[in-house]
Amino acid sequence: MLEIQGISKSFGGVRAVDDVSFTVEPGTIHSVIGPNGAGKTTLFNLITGIYIPNAGRVSFDGRDITGLRPDKLAGLGMSRTFQNLQVCMNMTALENVMLGSHLRLNHGILAGMAGSRKLARRDDACREEAVEFMQFAGVGQYVDSNAAQMPFGALKRLEIARALATRPSLLLLDEPAAGLNHTETGEISDLIKKIAGSGLTVVLVEHDMKMVMHISNHVTVLNYGTKLASGTVAEVRQNPAVISAYLGTTVQQEK
After folding, report:
1. Beta strand pairing status for 55-60 and 201-205?
2. Closest by CA position to 192, among listed 169, 215, 158
């Protein structure tokens, strides 16, 4: 579904991502791990059109999407969340999720002039759909809440609900468990498995190695902007270079 071929990105004299290649198979959870500064978020930004690579290409579902704008990629079925919450705190939780449907709605001036009843029906359908996504993400109890009133862990799942409202086939999650406690991390893990179980493909950047090793089908390891390894969880656990650079013997021995 996703193919990264020799992608590179430099900022001044620093090469943040250096000739990275890997593929993501449909219906899998593919995690990208590595130490701080390894280039993980930069890689996400290259895939999702926020950055334009200096070299290499990105293919999504067989189509070259290198350098396409994020809104165009969303229209093709790619959605993402961010390491730092991007939730509109001056809106309700439900309104935040409804924002995810904006590409599939026609709310222009001409549409409004053409018929308010039709527009109202679309809004009602959008609202009902947003409620379903919130329930799917485990935040249905906050339908009538303002986003500012929600706990941090629930906001993380609300952001995922909004991403799902774009109706993606590929979902990229940038550190969804960052800042969460053990219980909240478990809830996010269960949600990611639930998303993959519904047929979506998930690409995950995450520092919580226990979570990564328990839910991933495939893992790619970055170090100083280069690909150190890529393989199944078992293969990555046993890779000496990965153990030395990042995982450590504790994770290797964990069952």
Report:
1. unpaired
2. 215
User: Tokens at residue 17, please?
Assistant: 């991502």
pLDDT digits (tens, 9 = 90+) for 38-90: 899 999 999 999 999 999 999 999 999 998 999 899 989 999 998 888 899 99
Angle among Cα 34, 153, 176 to the nearest 5 degrees reads 25
* CATH no., domain 1-77+168-255: 3.40.50.300
pLDDT tens column, 103-153: 665 555 555 555 566 666 677 788 899 999 999 999 999 999 999 999 999
pLDDT at 242: 86
Assign 220 a pLDDT band (cuts: 50, 70, 90): very high
DSSP 118-138: HHHHHHHHHHHHHHHHHHHTT
Q: For residue 39, what is the DSSP state? A: S
CB 219 within 8 A of CB 33: yes
Domain edges within the chain? 1-77+168-255, 90-163
| Rounded Cα–Cα distance for residues 53 and 120 (Å) | 42
What residues contact residue 24 under an 8 Å CB cut-off, 6+ apart? 1, 2, 3, 30, 170, 201, 203, 218
Region of 85 on the Ramachandran plot (φ > 0 left; ψ -120 to 50 alpha; else beta): beta
